[in-house]
Design a protein that fits this description.
The protein is α+β, with helices and mostly antiparallel strands. The protein has 2 domains: 82 residues; 107 residues, Lipocalin, CATH 2.40.128. It is 35% helix and 30% strand. α1 runs antiparallel to α3 and α1 packs parallel to α4. The longest helix is centred in the N-terminal third of the chain and has 28 residues. It starts with a helix and ends in a 9-residue tail after the last strand.
Length: 208
């Protein structure tokens, strides 16, 4: 195998691993998340160009170099998988448990926040706003109140909400839509609103 082909295969393998583990490192980058994603996109197209070049050489060689053909097949397979599954082949989030409550909100400049409570009493908040940030922790239920515990910050943020309650949506009066109101502390009388997409907390109320 040509040394250049070995280098290309190594690059493809590393690229595949980086893309498929993004679930674990993307939230730690903060403002660098978007530039990193843009860089990965550039690398992808560079690898596509390299694959096209290898195909050209294979045609010139009249498909005589079997090693090159195997390399082309492997690279094509990896790039196809990344194209079909750009967020990774394995859904690592499912390995962390079932989401029993999912709430989301959108702020200015199309900034979005998604909060997911898992059936193992852990939570993850993911915010996308000129970057990607994540906050993890645990929670417990007391009557109709959700209390957040052992909050872990992956960025410079150091404050999170103390508790939250589910309330009928103030924007939908038919009683079929609900919001999650989160409060910084007991003196917070306004709270921060997220609309609830999924609520199956009843599944774990007997466990708390």
């Amino acid at each position: 195998m040509h040394l250049k082909n070995k280098g290309l295969l190594t690059t493809v393998i590393v690229f595949f691993l980086v893309v498929n583990t993004a679930y674990y490192w993307e939230g730690k980058l903060g403002l660098f998340a978007f530039p990193s994603s843009a860089f990965l996109i550039v690398i992808y197209f560079v690898l596509v160009a390299a694959l096209t070049r290898q195909i050209y050489f294979a045609v010139v060689e009249k498909l005589a170099d079997k090693t090159r053909l195997l390399s082309i097949g492997f690279i094509a397979l990896v790039l196809t998988l990344i194209f079909i599954k750009p967020f990774g082949v394995i859904n690592f989030e499912q390995l962390e448990g079932e989401s029993v409550l999912v709430a989301a909100g959108e702020g200015s400049a199309n900034c979005t926040t998604t909060l997911k409570l898992k059936d193992n009493f852990t939570f993850k908040q993911r915010s996308v706003c000129f970057g990607v940030t994540e906050i993890n922790g645990e929670y417990h239920l007391q009557n109709d109140t959700i209390y957040f515990d052992n909050v872990k910050f992956r960025t410079k943020e150091d404050k999170f909400y103390k508790f939250a309650v589910v309330r009928p949506s103030q924007f939908n009066k038919n009683g079929k839509r609900f919001d999650l109101l989160r409060y910084r502390d007991l003196t917070d009388t306004v709270g921060h609103n997220l609309w609830i997409i999924k609520n199956e907390l009843v599944k774990i109320k007997n466990k708390s």
